[in-house]
Amino acid sequence: MVREPIEQARSNYEFMRKVREANKKDHCRCVGLRYDECILRAVEMGCKSNTVLSSMPAFFLTRKQYRSYHQSVSSGNSFDCDLNKQRHYLDEMTRALDEYLFVGLTEHFDESVKILEAMLPTFFGGISAVGLDRFNVARSNYSLTDNIRDILRRSQCNWAIFRFYDEVNRRFL
User: Fold this and answer.
1) Fewer CB atoms < 10 Å away: N or C end of the chain?
2) Are 48 and 78 in contact (CB under 8 A)?
3) Number of other residues whose CB lies within 10 A of the CB of residue 108
4) For residues 6 and 144, is the Cβ–Cβ distance under 8 A?
5) Residues of the chain whose pLDDT is less than 70?
6) What is the pLDDT of residues 82-131, one digit of tens each?
7) In the 8-state DSSP scheme, what is residue 62?
8) Count helices and strands in the chain by DSSP H and E runs
9) How many Å apart are CA 156 and CA 26, to the nearest integer?
10) pTM given for the model
């Protein structure tokens, strides 16, 4: 399943927050800040690495491609902000997407599981009776403003991830 990129990045940020704080890895002085506050701090400081969505779907890149992508994003390297590189990642992910029988969306979790149940009853038969609510994506206790979302959408470094998500969404809906 694929999750909306900004929500995935926020979730990763909140999950890894304690790890970053313990390791003192804080290039943009975001220790103790919520995701939205960190994005604003990154813009204010010109700290590009915190406005890059590092949640490129690993399932759709080879290990080598993902490792390269993740290392350059983690280091704040502009390598992956290059549009040619972004187009390359998008092509690779879209090509891999064609090899999957079905790709669901976490924003449509219940529906995605029911489709899997119908398509592959041997593996997923009866799973919707289990009670899907406990498996559904946890929601954050705060909303991101349109300004924060616009900052992330406008970043050239995030071009491929949004195009990829749009393609998965188009195929799903």
Assistant:
1) C
2) yes
3) 15
4) yes
5) 18-27, 49-62, 65-66, 68-80, 131-140
6) 788 788 888 888 888 888 889 999 889 889 989 999 999 999 998 888 76
7) -
8) 8, 0
9) 22
10) 0.78
